[in-house]
Amino acid sequence: MKVSLFATCLVDLFQTDVGKATVELLETLGCEVTFPRGQVCCGQPAYNSGYTKDAKEPMKKMIDTFIDEEWVVTPSGSCATMFQEYPHIFKDDPIYAEKAQRLADKTYELTDFIVNVLNVTDVGASYHHRVTYHPSCHMTRLLGVKDAPLTLLKNVKGLELVDLPNSYNCCGFGGTFSVKMGNISEQMVDEKVNCAVETDAEYLIASDGGCIMNIDGRMQRRGETMRTKHIVEILTQHEGV
Amino acid sequence: MSIQFYDKKFKDTVKENLEDDFMRGAVSAAQNRLHNGRLKAVEELGDWEQWRNHGQEIRQNVLKHLDYYLNELATNVEKAGGHVFFAKDGDEANTYIRQVARDKGAKRVVKSKSMVTEEISLNEALEKEGCQVLETDLGEYILQLEGDKPSHIVAPSLHKNKDQIKEVFVDQLAYPSEASSEAGPLARHVRTILRDEFLQADLGITGCNFGVADSGSICLVTNEGNAGLVTTIPKTHIAVMGMERLVPSMKELEVLVNMLTRSAVGQKMPSYVNIITGPKRAEEVDGPEEFHLVILDNGRSNILGGDFQEVLQCIRCGACVNTCPVYRHIGGHSYNSIYSGPIGAVLTPLLAGYDDYKELPYASSLCGACTDACPVKIPLHELLRKHREVIVEKEGKAPIAESAMMKMFEIGASSSPLYRFGTKIATKAVKPFTKNNKITKGPGPIKAWTDVRDFPAPKEERLRDWFDQREKGEKNNGKNGIFTKFSEPTAKTT
Fold first, then answer.
1. pLDDT digit string (tens) for B149-205?
2. Are the beta carbons of B417 and B411 closer than 8 angstroms?
3. In B117-202, where do the E strands start and end?
4. Looking at residue A168, which CATH number applies to its domain?
5. Does A23 share its domain with A110?
6. pLDDT > 60? residue B130
7. Is the domain of A90 the same as that of A168?
C-alpha cells in the first residue's frame, strides 16, 4: 500500500522524531511511505485567524502536491481535519472544488488509518509505563476519530492507561489563540497540566503536535517531571519486561 | 441595562475576572455539574444525534418561513383576545410597554427571567415611568439586590457561590446570619418575601421561550414557578419575545422543550411548563384581563439570510456556555454582554456591532466543544471563525502586524522552495535564543508564547532533510526502506 506522508509543519520542523516514528510504524505495517517534497503548511493558522484569502494559496499548493497520491496519512488530527475542510472552503472554485474533495476522501489521521484502513488493532508494541491520554479537540469533535487511538493504546503490552480527568476540555492551544489570548490560554493549559499530574502517569499521550507543544511547554516551564509523547512514539516501542 | 454592561475593554474585563478566584471556583464547579448532567440526560433519549438533527430541522424550517409563522402567531394571538406589537428595536418595544403601564396605571411590576428584556433595558425604561420593577427569578432577584449583572443566559448568578448569596441576604433581607447557607432555606426566605410582591403587582412581564404559531400560545419554561404567578396574578401580562423564537405547533414544541431542559440543566423535564393562550376567558378564574405580546426585531432581521443565520436557531439552553473552556476561566462578565459564552461571542457582535465587540470572536480556541453541545446544531465555532474573516477581510480591523505576518505566511507557504528556505532561516534566527534545546524568552511573535511556556528549539535536521538523506542512502544501498518489515504473526487484524 502506498502511503504519502503529510508530515505537518510542527513535525517537519520541531518533532522530527514523530515523523520518523510514523514512517517506521507504517513501514512495519507493510506500507511504502513517501514524502512529497512540495508539501508546505496546510493553511490552518491563517484560515482560523480569518485570513481565508491568504490561506487559500498554500491550500492549493497542498492539494496539487497530494492530489495524485494513493493514500495521504498524517500524524495530526487537527491537520487531517483541515484537509477535510478544504472541500467546504473551495466549494465555489471551478477547479479546486473537485480536487479538494478527492484529497479529503483519501486523507486519514494516522491511528484512524491503521485501525480503519489497514484493519490493524494491535501493532505489536510493548511499553511498560503508566500513561494518560489527552483526546485532542479537532480530532475527536471535528474529525470524529475517538476510538482508534484508544484501541491501539489498549493493545500495547504492559501499558497502563489511566483516565485523564475532564479530558474533554481543550488544552488551550488553539493556534494563534495561544498567543493572542495568552492569559486565558495559560489558565486552560494549567488546568490540563493539573489534571494530567493528578493521574500520576509518567507521560501524557496525545495525537496532535500542537497540543503536545503547548502542554509539554507548560510542563517544562512549571518544572513538572511529567512529559508528553506523541502516540506514534508509544506505538513504535518494543520494550522487554 | 442594555446588551453592554460597562465601558471597558475586553482585555481588562478578562484580567479582572481571571483574578477573581471565588467566581472561577463557582463557575468551574457549576460547569462540571451542568456538563455531566447534560451528558447523562441526553443519553437517556437514545439516539441523541437524531434528536439534534430533528431539532435543527425544526429551527431551520421556522427561519426559512419566519414571515409566515410570525403572521400566523400574531393572527392567532389576536384571535385569542391578545394584543400583538412588532417592535423594530428596543426603543419601540419599551415605548409600547411604558404606554401599556401608563394606561393601566401600573405602579408595581413583577417579572420572570427574560434575557430579551435585559437586551432592551426594559427595567430602566419602566423605572423612568415611575414603576417599581421586581425580578422574581431567584438568580435575577439576587442580582437585582446587588445591582449586579447576569453572567449566564440560563443561570444569571452562576458566578456566585452559596456563601456569597447568603451574605447578600443577611445584609439586605434580614436573613439570620446564623442560618444555613444551603439553597433550600435561602430560597424559602425569598419565597415569603416574593409572595406579597406577587399579590400586590399590577403588571406581569415575562419573556417567551417559544411562541406557538398555530395556537397563538406562548410557552414559558421555569423551575421556580414564578412565571406562573407573574402570568396569573397581575391584571395585565406582557410577554416579550425575540422574533425568531417560535415553533409551528405543539408537536415541535414538545421536541424542543425536551431538548431544552436536558441541554440546559440535565433535567428530563422542568418543574413548570406554562403554555398561555391569550388573556383570561370568561369562564376562567385565574389569569390576566389583558395580554400583550411584543415581538422584537432589534437587529435580528439583519442576521436573517446572511452568513450568520444559523445563530438564530438558538433556543437559549446555554449548553455551549456550560461546556466552553474559555468561559470556564473568564466567567460571563468578561464578555461585557448579557449574552456570554460561545453563543454570546457569536451573537453580540451581530446585535451590537464590531466596534465594541471585535475581540469576542477571538476568545475561543475553536475547540468545537460548543458546536458539539448545541442541541440544534449551530456550528458555533465555525461562526466564530467566520466573524474573524469578516473582521479581517471586510471590516479591515485586524492588527497591522498580524496582517503583515499573514501576508508573509501566504507568500512563504505558497511556494515549496520559499517554504524550505524560510523554515531554514527561521531555524537559524532563533538559535541565539536557544538553550538546552528550548527557548524560554523568545523574540517577536514567539514572545507571547514563551511568557507562558517553553518553546522547543527547531531541529537542525528537518524531517524533509532526513528524507533526503534516507533516499540518498537507499539509492546507494539499493535498500527499500530502512525499517524492517513487521513480523506477520504478532500483527492482529480486526
1. 999 999 999 999 999 999 999 999 999 999 999 999 999 999 999 999 999 999 999
2. no
3. 132-135
4. 3.40.50
5. yes
6. yes
7. no
CB of B393 within 8 Å of a chain A CB? The answer is yes
The pLDDT of residue A127: 97
Which residue in B326, B366, B414 is closest to A61 by CB distance?
A: B414
pLDDT over 70 (residue B494)? no
Do the Cβ atoms of A48 and B385 come within 8 Å?
A: yes
CB contact under 8 A, B486 and A28: yes
Treating both helix axes as pointing N-terminal to C-terminal, what angle do A77-89 and A96-106 enclose, rounded to 10 degrees?
Answer: 150
A8 with A104, same domain: the answer is yes
Position A124 in a domain: no
Residue B82 DSSP class = -
Q: Nearest by CB to A120, which of B461, B485, B491?
A: B491
A151 min Cα distance to partner chain B (Å): 11
Least confidently predicted of B184-198, B329-343, B420-434? B420-434
- Nearest CA among B126, B92, B203, B292 for reference residue B144: B126
Whether A29 and B491 lie within 8 Å, measured CB to CB: yes
Q: Is the pLDDT of residue A31 over 50?
A: yes
Q: Do A58 and B455 touch (CB under 8 A)?
A: no
pLDDT band at B425 (very low <50, low <70, confident <90, very high): confident
Q: How many CA atoms lie within 13 A of B454 on its CB side?
A: 20
What is the average pLDDT score of chain A? 97
Cβ distance B452 to A189 less than 8 Å, yes or no, reads yes
For residues B33-55, give the mean pLDDT.
96
Domain boundary among A116, A142, A177: A116
Domain of A48 in residue numbering reads as 2-116
Q: Is the pLDDT of residue B482 over 70?
A: no
Residues A138 and A193 in one domain: yes
Mean pLDDT of A207-220: 97
With 90 as the cut, is the pLDDT of residue A136 above it?
Answer: yes
Selecting from A19, A27, A58 the residue whose C-beta is nearest the C-beta of B483 gives A27
Highest CATH level, class, for B10-303: alpha beta
Helix (H) or strand (E) holding A113: helix A110-116
Task: Check whether residue A94 and residue A136 sit in a common domain.
Answer: no
Q: Compute the distance between CA of residue B208 and CA of residue B93 in angstroms, rounded to an integer.
A: 15
The pLDDT assigned to B493 comes to: 44
Say whether B197 sits in a helix, a strand or coil: helix
Distances (CA, A) of B492 to A29, A73, A119, A122, B487: 11, 21, 9, 6, 11
Interface of B with A in 97-126 (CB under 8 A): none
Residue A241 lies in a domain: no
**Which of A68, A90, A116 is the last residue before a domain boundary?**
A116
Enumerate residues 22 to 41 of chain B having a beta carbon within 8 A of any beta carbon in chain A: 32
A104 shares its domain with A21: yes
Per domain, the residue ranges of chain B are 10-303, 399-429, 432-482
CB contact, 8 Å: B414 with chain A? yes
For residue A120, the chain B residues in CB contact (below 8 A) are: 491-494
Instruction: Tell me the pTM.
Output: 0.94
Interface A:B, Cβ pairs < 8 A: 226
Query: For A172, which residue in chain B has the nearest alpha carbon?
Result: B365
According to DSSP, residue A139 is labeled I
| DSSP codes joined into one string, B444-486 | GGGHHHHTTS-EEPPPSS-HHHHHHHHHHHHHHHT-S-SSPPP
Verify whether the Cβ–Cβ distance B406 to A51 is below 8 Å: yes
Q: Is B458 on the interface with A (CB under 8 A)?
A: yes
